[in-house]
């Protein structure tokens, strides 16, 4: 081979894509290492203390590498929440972690969380640009949208509109009770089919809870056996789990992974497409059948607001059909997942603690009897309310809140927190804080009662968050939780199936903390020796 041919061969070899990959990868690796340490030496001078991060992967590499190496990260106890809370014992209630080169500050304990979110809301109320979430939501809606004027207008509109359709009012009770009738009827049927094997309550509770928010935002209810609706509810739950508990979390470090044509990446895209088709079809039908004189739900009211702003010449208004889609998606998912899991956790705990279940049912029998429980009974059922609150304290359905972000560099409790830092308000640590709760890991509803048996309100009980990002549907969730739990316990007794292992109380961490799959045996109850008190005649 002559010298010219040899040179040409070498050139082709060096420039082939397969041979360019390795040096390119090495270049990117070195670049990230250099940038990582430059950031640490520069803008991260007075940040809160924390475990020393590894280059490129930061502190959270412990979830993806062998345990022998990951011990350095100190982040492999039984759950993410326990891991993050345990670090406060080493570094204090404000400490730093790195996800890659992204600085993340964890806030532990009620005083610190309250100080940040309530006393400094303008700084701590923003949302981070998390790639996986941003791809799915386009940073629109009311849950993940950035803090600012657009978000304030959209949230204010949604909150006032939902109140007009019954949010937090007794007029919403019949809607919740209709779902409860369906749950009871299905429980009786399924219990006959499955007997001592137990019943999976999740689809029944999820359908009933989702129908309440659907009636308010979409003006319609779906039958429990509607295959498309059941599929959508399943997809919602699966999508949230994929985003947190699968290799799809790597999308946050490498966004292009979202477009991979296989595995959970492909599955996540399909989930997004299916939910999008479902919601956009309903929105289109609303637009076609809109009667501005007779609004049926939030979607109609949103279209009316769009028309009003267009008539006023506000061509660049944030009120548009695209934004409506993301608002409905937020309310649909958030309004279903959190309340469903709260009800399921409550029934699971009461099955695990039958003595508490006995006391709750005795109180309901004494105060309510055979009539349908109402929100007007809430003040007369202190032990029932205390039991529900104790489950909320221990289960913490949204244990790390939704991640916040500081909108500007700020001094907070002696530390400098740079603009763009992701903030995790650790609500799990608030509800397990031994300085404010006696024996915090023990299930004890009486901690919410005074010596006279009256309900105690504790400011460090914050299952719905705190500050300007507090859950907008708090009042709705409380209504659904109370009415569903009291209605079911009035009619049925729940127990664990014989011979099966005790369900884990660590749960499955997604956007919310869901209980691990479980089944309960159901038996009908009677009051004063009468007929079974199923309440199906509502």
UniProtKB/TrEMBL annotation:
The chain crosses the membrane at residues 20-37. A cytochrome P450 monooxygenase involved in the metabolism of arachidonic acid and its conjugates. Mechanistically, uses molecular oxygen inserting one oxygen atom into a substrate, and reducing the second into a water molecule, with two electrons provided by NADPH via cytochrome P450 reductase (CPR; NADPH-ferrihemoprotein reductase). Acts as an omega and omega-1 hydroxylase for arachidonic acid and possibly for other long chain fatty acids. May modulate the arachidonic acid signaling pathway and play a role in other fatty acid signaling processes. It comes from Nothobranchius furzeri. It is found in: Endoplasmic reticulum membrane; Microsome membrane; Mitochondrion inner membrane. The gene is CYP2U1. Keywords: Endoplasmic reticulum, Heme, Iron, Lipid metabolism, Membrane, Metal-binding, Microsome, Mitochondrion, Mitochondrion inner membrane, Monooxygenase, Oxidoreductase, Transmembrane, Transmembrane helix. This is Cytochrome P450 2U1. Its EC number is 1.14.14.80. PROSITE patterns: CYTOCHROME_P450. It is a multi-pass membrane protein. It catalyses: N-[(5Z,8Z,11Z,14Z)-eicosatetraenoyl]-serotonin + reduced [NADPH--hemoprotein reductase] + O2 = 2-oxo-N-[(5Z,8Z,11Z,14Z)-eicosatetraenoyl]-serotonin + oxidized [NADPH--hemoprotein reductase] + H2O + H(+); an omega-methyl-long-chain fatty acid + reduced [NADPH--hemoprotein reductase] + O2 = an omega-hydroxy-long-chain fatty acid + oxidized [NADPH--hemoprotein reductase] + H2O + H(+); (5Z,8Z,11Z,14Z)-eicosatetraenoate + reduced [NADPH--hemoprotein reductase] + O2 = 19-hydroxy-(5Z,8Z,11Z,14Z)-eicosatetraenoate + oxidized [NADPH--hemoprotein reductase] + H2O + H(+); (5Z,8Z,11Z,14Z)-eicosatetraenoate + reduced [NADPH--hemoprotein reductase] + O2 = 20-hydroxy-(5Z,8Z,11Z,14Z)-eicosatetraenoate + oxidized [NADPH--hemoprotein reductase] + H2O + H(+). InterPro entries: Cyt_P450, Cyt_P450_CS, Cyt_P450_E_grp-I, Cyt_P450_E_grp-I_CYP2D-like, Cyt_P450_sf, Cytochrome_P450_fam2. It comes from the Eukaryota. It holds the Pfam family p450.
């Amino acid at each position: 081979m002559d010298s010219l041919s040899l040179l040409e061969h070498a050139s082709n070899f060096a420039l082939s894509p397969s041979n360019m990959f390795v040096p390119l990868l090495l270049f990117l690796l070195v670049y990230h290492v250099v940038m990582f340490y430059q950031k640490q030496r520069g803008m991260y001078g007075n940040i809160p203390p924390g475990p020393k991060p590894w280059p490129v992967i930061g502190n959270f590499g412990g979830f993806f590498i062998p345990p022998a190496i990951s011990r350095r990260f100190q982040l492999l106890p039984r759950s993410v929440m326990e891991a993050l809370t345990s670090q406060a014992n080493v570094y204090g209630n404000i400490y730093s972690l790195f996800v890659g080169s992204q600085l993340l500050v964890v806030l532990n304990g009620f005083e610190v969380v309250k100080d940040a979110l309530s006393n400094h809301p303008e700084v701590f109320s923003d949302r981070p640009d998390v790639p996986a979430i941003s791809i799915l939501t386009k940073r629109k809606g009311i849950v993940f949208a950035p803090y600012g004027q657009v978000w304030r207008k959209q949230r204010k509109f949604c909150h006032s509109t939902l109140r007009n359709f019954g949010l937090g009012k007794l007029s919403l009770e019949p809607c919740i009770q209709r779902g409860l009738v369906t749950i009871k009827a299905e429980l009786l049927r399924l219990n006959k089919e499955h007997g001592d094997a137990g019943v999976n309550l999740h689809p029944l509770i999820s359908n009933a809870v989702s129908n309440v928010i659907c009636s308010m935002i979409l003006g319609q209810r779906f039958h429990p056996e509607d295959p498309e609706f059941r599929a959508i509810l399943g997809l919602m739950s699966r999508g949230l789990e994929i985003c947190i508990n699968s290799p799809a979390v790597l999308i946050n470090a490498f966004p292009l992974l979202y477009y991979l044509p296989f595995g959970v990446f492909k599955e996540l895209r399909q989930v997004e497409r299916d939910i999008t088709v479902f919601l956009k079809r309903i929105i289109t039908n609303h637009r076609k059948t809109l009667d501005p004189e007779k609004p049926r739900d939030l979607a109609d009211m949103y279209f009316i607001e769009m028309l009003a702003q267009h008539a006023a010449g506000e061509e660049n208004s944030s009120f548009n059909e695209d934004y409506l889609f993301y608002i409905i998606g937020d309310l649909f998912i958030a309004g279903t997942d959190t309340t469903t899991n709260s009800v399921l956790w409550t029934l699971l705990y009461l099955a695990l603690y039958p003595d508490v279940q006995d006391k709750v049912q005795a109180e309901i029998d004494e105060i309510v009897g055979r009539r349908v429980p109402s929100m007007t009974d809430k003040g007369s059922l202190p032990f029932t309310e205390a039991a529900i609150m104790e489950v909320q304290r221990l289960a913490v359905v949204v244990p790390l809140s939704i991640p916040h972000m500081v909108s500007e560099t700020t001094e907070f409790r002696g530390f400098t927190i740079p603009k763009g830092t992701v903030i995790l308000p650790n609500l799990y640590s608030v509800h397990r804080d031994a300085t404010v709760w006696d024996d915090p890991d023990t299930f004890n509803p009486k901690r919410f009662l005074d010596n006279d048996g009256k309900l105690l309100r504790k400011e460090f009980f914050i299952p719905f968050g705190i500050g300007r990002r507090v859950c907008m549907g708090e009042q709705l969730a409380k209504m659904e939780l109370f009415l569903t739990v009291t209605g079911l316990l009035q009619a049925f007794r729940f127990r664990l199936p014989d011979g099966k292992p005790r369900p884990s109380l660590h749960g499955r961490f997604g956007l919310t903390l869901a209980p691990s799959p479980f089944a309960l045996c159901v038996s009908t109850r009677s009051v004063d020796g009468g007929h079974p008190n199923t309440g199906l005649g509502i």
